[in-house]
Amino acid sequence: MQYIKSQQGKLFLQLSSDLYRKEKIHKDVEYWRCIDKLCTGRLNLKYEEIIKGPSDHNHVADIIKNQAKVVVENIKNQAVETQDNPAVIISESSSSVVPIVFCALPQIA
């Protein structure tokens, strides 16, 4: 289980190959749903522990796209936490990525 931020700064939860977005919080229980709006996949957490789910998804997980989001989040975190040159950060982060995930990364202007 890993948390990543969306481009809008919202929190996503990655569990295996699926991504979830927080739907609501009620009485210390976090309700998460799949990022695909038409999907019925859900997950409930209480104090970072899964108490219900994950339920089945009605689509195939886009593993490549999800992994690319994780790589981008790692690049952003390194940029904030270190004084390294951005080109070096991107180069080091992308060198360890599988080529098919590398192709899914955003283009550098």
Automatic annotation (TrEMBL):
Keyword entries, A-Z: Metal-binding, Zinc, Zinc-finger
FLYWCH-type domain span: 3-59
Highest taxon of source: Eukaryota
The organism's taxonomic lineage, starting at the top: Eukaryota, Metazoa, Ecdysozoa, Arthropoda, Hexapoda
Molecular function GO terms recorded: zinc ion binding
Matches recorded under InterPro entries: Znf_FLYWCH (IPR007588)
Protein name (record): FLYWCH-type domain-containing protein
